[in-house]
Amino acid sequence: MNDKEFDLTMLENADNETIKQIAENCPASDEEMERMFAMSRKIYNERTRESNNKDNIEVSGVEQYRKPVWQKFTAVAAALVLTGGVVAGGMYFMKNKNNFNTNDPVPVVTDPATSPSTQPASPVEEGCPFGDISNDKVRVTYAAISPGVVDVKQDFVKQLAENFNKGKWTELSDAPQFMGEYSTIFIYNNGNPYQVDCCLYNTENDKGAYIKFNDGKDLKYYKGDEFVVKAVQGLYSYDFDMNEVIKLDESDYDDLIHKVWADQKTQANTEEVTLPDVKNMKDELAKAHLKDMGLNVEIVKSADITVNPGYVIKSEPDAGTKLAAGSTVKIYVSTDDTSEAANTDNNTASAVNTENSELIAKAQNFYEEAIKADCKFGRSAPQYFNIDTMNCFSTAEGRTLSYVYDITLEELRAQYHETFSDRYAENDATIDKWYSVNDGKLCWLTGNPGVDLYLESAKVTEVQRQTDEEIFFTVERHYSDFRHVDIDGSFEPYTETDDFSVVIQPDGSWKVGKFHNPQPN
Amino acid sequence: MTHEEYKKASDRSKEEAQRIVFKEYFNYVYTIVFSRLRSCASREDIEECVGDVFADVYIHYDNSKAVGEDISGFIGTVARNKAADMYRKLTRKRFTFVSVDDEDVPEQEAPENTEADYEKKELRTSLMNCISLLGEPDSTIIMQKYFFMRSSQEIADKVSLTPEAVRMRCSRALKKLREKLTAMNISL
């Protein structure tokens, strides 16, 4: 059960003693109490038929309930003082990518709405009101990883931007009532960052998406159409690895909008370069060429009878990869047997070790791809398939489902098995768990299984054995309080191992064999 | 508040007297009503029900029925009855309407005379103890989020924290609470 599923239903309809205990936490605000008092007076008057009483009141004209000294704005200011600054500080709007004032204090962030009661202040606008972010750096945070953030991959940013740009936006004159959880994205904007809060709402009369950001003068609220909804839905289900989380400190709340991008300062003026293909180049030439491009080079000697000694076998990362200047590139250089002048066993052992480490490195990449692929069909499916989560429904068994369009169950399964071998029956578990046919329609199990806050890493550590058709590896999952969530400090780090295998296809490619997804899926 | 105190206040201003009663019993009434209706009613319905309860309480005071007696028992009964009526209305089940003016109105507290109810009460007590052991503001945050279903913003206003800090504290407090519940073999 994740945080969102936790509920205190057990306390419903409790005995008097428990009720009195719960009542100590009664959350109604002064405004709500005043409203209910006015309601009680109105009903009382109607029942007693008082018509010319001096206390006869309309709801709107009720005498103000005596507010305590603690006023709402004062409390917000107090919150600012007590917490050392507001998380939401420095939300910036950049329609034309201009500089704007970063000194304005920003009110506390509000949460997604359930009942919009505001009327639009202005006509519908086309085009994203905070600008086109398709080429920008974006980071996202959620409650589960806060105050940590995750880099949003560029292709996903483009998807987000496409939907934001296509969407129709209506500015709201009043802040809508935000309730529940929401996503926050941080836009780098060439060193003038800003923050946008996004949420979905669904009421009896309306559903859509709300966006909130600061345009440098005021906090602005917008309502977005189905394109904006799609963008926000994608954000909700954005898939990432826990070791991608950029950890921030609670003190970073003081100036989160800038602290989020603190690591970018050193790269502010760095240009990106595309790694050229240096295969079969003489090692010294390749090294000089890469250095000229501003890259650092590490040479790894490797046995490869297909490449002349002293020439490059391959680079890591692969040619075509975009890198920031100053990044390190490994080039694998074929060994010169005569110049090495080591004994044959050492050479062989060294070659085997190198081969194994290359195999493990390849398996690690493949393992990470397997995790992503498994999540793609499971928890992150709305990001990749046409799933209508806005109209999810509950079944008699208590499951919440959403309809899946444009694909059949068989097609989904076939796609899944493009990555996952059908050699292992358990490789059908993800599809079987997340998809079902309800009244003849394909459905997806709606919900977020949460994240494991203690999973620090999952690494392929060794080759166990190899056959003609399959290679078996060991994966070590390491758990620790690296996110500092354990207040008691009693969490003891530990490691568990899994078996992971790849099934070698006739064409030499790999499919996932034995696999356990370390993330909840 | 006794009837005598109410009468004295009412002589000055009926609204003033009603406001005193409202303020004194609001938390109790709201919690009873919310507890009954949280699974099926909107906030507006719940607020209407609370208003309805207090309207009856004011009338009860007017009718001098509260002389010398502890009004809280009566208020609790009215609140439970009203909440039950609204629950039935919202869930569209047919039951006999019980008027709160009926002197024979039965106590509508959760029955406590069966073994199952006793076990439930024990569980609730244990759960409340575990929550209170979290300390402030975590226990408030947990109750307001997971029982009263309030947003992080609303909770933040109450406990003088930012919504982000509320979410973080909530996540940590929930983890601690789960550990305590597991240790006590309680599952929700």
Walk me through this protein's architecture:
The complex is a heterodimer of chains A (521) and B (188). With 521 residues, chain A is α+β, with helices and mostly antiparallel strands. Chain A has helices at 16-23, 30-48, 72-83, 154-166, 226-236, 256-259, 283-292, 337-340, 344-377, 381-384, 409-419, 429-434; strands at residues 120-126, 138-141, 150-151, 168-172, 183-187, 194-202, 207-214, 219-224, 272-274, 296-302, 312-316, 322-324, 328-334, 386-394, 400-405, 435-438, 441-445, 455-466, 470-479, 494-504, 510-512. Helices cover 26% and strands 25% of the residues of chain A. In chain A, β20 (494-504) and β21 form a beta hairpin. In chain A, α4 packs antiparallel against α5. Chain B is an all-alpha fold and 188 residues long. Chain B folds into two domains: 3-92, Orthogonal Bundle (Rna Polymerase Sigma Factor, Chain: A), CATH 1.10.1740; 117-183, Orthogonal Bundle (Arc Repressor Mutant, subunit A), CATH 1.10.10. Chain B has eight helices and no strands. Classes of the chains: A alpha+beta (521), B mainly alpha (188).
